[in-house]
């Protein structure tokens, strides 16, 4: 219980720090554009704006490149990989402290440059890093780290925290963690995910109130076109990610519960059609990167496949009388497979 609360609070503090940095960079850009020397022509303003955006975005890219390149990308496909396959070594590599610094600073600079991007994926990654570091390096929590089951439960809770602290949507965050990052989700882990997500949401609200900043990111949608835009945007995300939780996240984030019926219907249709046509966005990234991931395969997808279709047949036999030179020659010729060929099983 204590680890869940600490995780939620730490993630919320980091989220506030990133948002403060983004706000500071935005104020700096506006200050540069409002200088008297910039009031002459619009072309000079455009050049200054372009130079600022390019410079800050370049700094973010260089930070990721030289501090820790593992921080590049969303992070959700890798977390899905770690949770579904319980890859402890990969977790140590992907959830390191350098990765946290690279991810947080790179995200702040990228968003502060004015580039249109979302932080929910990167923040799922950063929350997972916080959970990993707390479990691994604080003695009171190390027993959780040593248990494979509890460790995976904490990663699930961390994914929920990432969404809850970003969108102030604890319920949607838990559902998102179940749908996106889990191949199997134990019902007994519900309370852990909810405690962590609610702790993150409450902590983030309190920080906003103390600092007298805006608590909600959306203003109420009072007109019908705004409702259509909300439903359309959520349906698009649902079709790409194959998730229904985005509807709940949108309702919690905007407070527009009057659109619950069209939101749920649109997301169900979009997610169903997207699932029938292809794999989700996250699974396509997993396949393209060659990550070890065990997808949920329907029985009809396995029809006609045998063990030979997923086995590596290019192996060498080593007799008992093999000399050391012969063994070295075999090892030089043989390279272990980097990943299973799950892509051959996908039939959209």
How does the SSE layout of this entry go?
Layout: H1 2-33, H2 42-67, H3 76-85, H4 88-94, H5 97-112, H6 120-137, H7 142-146, H8 148-167, H9 170-181, H10 190-210, H11 224-241, H12 245-254, H13 260-277, H14 281-289, H15 324-333
Task: Provide an overview of this structure.
It is found in: Membrane. GO terms for molecular function: voltage-gated chloride channel activity. The chain is mainly α. The protein is 67% helix and 0% strand. The chain contains 15 helices and no strands. The chain has helices spanning 2-33, 42-67, 76-85, 88-94, 97-112, 120-137, 142-146, 148-167, 170-181, 190-210, 224-241, 245-254, 260-277, 281-289, 324-333. The longest helix is centred in the N-terminal third of the chain and has 32 residues, at 2-33. The protein is globular.
């Amino acid at each position: 219980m204590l680890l869940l609360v600490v995780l939620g609070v730490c993630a919320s503090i980091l989220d506030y720090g990133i948002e403060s940095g983004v706000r500071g960079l935005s104020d700096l850009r506006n200050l540069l554009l409002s200088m008297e020397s910039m009031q002459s022509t619009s072309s000079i303003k455009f050049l200054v704006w372009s130079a600022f955006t390019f410079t800050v975005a370049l700094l973010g890219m260089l930070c990721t490149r030289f501090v820790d390149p593992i921080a590049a990308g969303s992070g959700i496909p890798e977390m899905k990989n770690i949770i579904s396959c319980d890859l402890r070594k990969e977790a140590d590599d992907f959830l390191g402290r350098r990765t946290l610094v690279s991810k947080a600073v790179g995200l702040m600079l990228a968003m502060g440059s004015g580039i249109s991007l979302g932080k929910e994926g990167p923040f799922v990654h950063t929350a997972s890093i916080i959970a990993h570091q707390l479990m691994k390096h604080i003695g009171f929590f190390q027993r959780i780290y040593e248990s494979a089951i509890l460790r995976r439960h904490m990663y699930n809770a961390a994914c929920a925290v990432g969404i809850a602290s970003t969108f102030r949507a604890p319920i949607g965050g838990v559902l998102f963690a179940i749908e996106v990052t889990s191949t199997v989700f134990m019902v007994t882990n519900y309370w852990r995910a909810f405690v962590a997500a609610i702790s993150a949401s409450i902590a983030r609200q309190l920080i906003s109130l103390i600092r007298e900043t805006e608590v909600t990111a959306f203003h109420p949608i009072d007109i019908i076109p705004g409702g259509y835009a909300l439903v359309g945007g959520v349906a698009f995300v649902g079709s790409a990610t194959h998730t229904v939780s985005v509807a709940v996240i949108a309702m919690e984030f905007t407070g527009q519960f009057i659109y619950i019926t069209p939101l749920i219907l649109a997301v169900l249709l979009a997610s169903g059609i997207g699932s029938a046509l292809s794999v989700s966005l996250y699974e396509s990234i997993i396949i393209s990167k060659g990550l070890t991931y065990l997808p949920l395969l329907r029985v009809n997808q396995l029809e006609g496949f045998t063990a030979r279709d997923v086995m590596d047949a290019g192996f060498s036999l080593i007799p008992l009388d093999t000399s050391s030179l012969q063994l070295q020659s075999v090892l030089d010729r043989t390279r272990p497979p980097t990943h299973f060929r799950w892509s051959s099983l996908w039939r959209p």
